[in-house]
Amino acid sequence: MLCCMPGVAFVPALLVIWSSAAFIISYVIAVLAGHVEPLVPYISDTGTKPPESGIFGFMINISALLGVITMYIRYLLIEKQNESSHFVRSSCNVLSLCIGFLGCIGMGIVATFQELSVPSVHDIGALVAFGSGVVYITLQSVMSYKSCPRWNTYFVCHIRMAISVISCIAFIPMIVFASRISMTKIDWTPGEK
């Protein structure tokens, strides 16, 4: 199986490195071009105006593809482990994979439809990406606990669950604050609402 091939572990590492590079490169270009303020801009703001928008869109779409590959490898790994342990229903693993793929589709939507060009589509993509991501991480954490102690250590499970809890907590204010603002431009001038 693909998940048991030597060297397949480089894919999740590549996902992290590539995604980080996407955010950092588009941020640096946006700041140097004067398109955003250097102090904590929204991620989407750093990929709204050319030339950083093209780089942002391209790199985030590659990140979404790497995310799909990573999730599929994880799915295959759990299926293989489950053959001997039967720690989780196969349908739960398939559900987790589908939710993960949905999140990657959301990432692709965010990358393709810039924040100011088609804001409603961009926002829906962001909601799908982040919402599906939180559910995917939580399902993976639960499956990790079910596979203990044979396939995971409790330390790894606790780390995964901590990330899940932090993601859930962060998702709530994201929804609240995103619903309260309607951003139609990046640049703000004193005196504006």
UniProtKB/TrEMBL annotation:
TM helices/strands, residue ranges: 7-33, 53-73, 94-114, 120-139, 151-178
Record key words, sorted: Membrane, Transmembrane, Transmembrane helix
Gene Ontology BP terms: regulation of autophagy
Pfam families: Frag1
Name the UniProt record assigns to this protein: DRAM1 protein
Family: Belongs to the DRAM/TMEM150 family.
Database matches in InterPro entries: CWH43_N (IPR019402), DRAM/TMEM150_Autophagy_Mod (IPR050911)
Membrane topology, as annotated: Multi-pass membrane protein
CC per GO annotation: endomembrane system; lysosome
Subcellular location: Endomembrane system
Domain of life of the source: Eukaryota
Sequence ranges assigned to domain CWH43-like N-terminal in this UniProt record: 8-183
